Amino acid sequence: QVQLVESGGGLVQPGGSLRLSCAASGSIFSIYTMGWYRQAPGKQRELVAAMTSGGSTTQANSVKGRFTISRDNAKNTVYLQMNSLKPEDTAVYYCNVGGLLAGSLNRFGSWGQGTQVTVSS
Q1: Three-state secondary structure of the chain
Q2: Which of 1, 64, 101, 120 is buried deepest, with most CB atoms within 10 A?
């Protein structure tokens, strides 16, 4: 019903930058929250950053000052600009979107397929 397509991951050297994108499509009436989570090997999935439709943001302390979340509501797309990347940022990054379905107005919560970000020299 709701599909998420992520892009932008890859291999980057420490100190480098990457920009992740996630586009939502399908039977969407409205989107409340769009965000990014990450999961490193052997660790639990954790919130990186999220943004509401009103523009309020939440970020993990570990990425404050380095990562910026933004969204294009007209395109149902969320971005994560990652600067000053560190080896400890290496993880699979997942997009997460929550809102209401068209027609039924039931709530939905969807995850992207994940995109690998590797920070290494």
Answers
A1: CEEEEEECCEEECCCCCEEEEEEEEECEEEEEEEEEEEECCCCCCEEEEEEECCCCEEECHHHCCCEEEEEEHHHCEEEEEECCCCHHHCEEEEEEEEEEECCCCCEEEEECCCEEEEECC
A2: 101
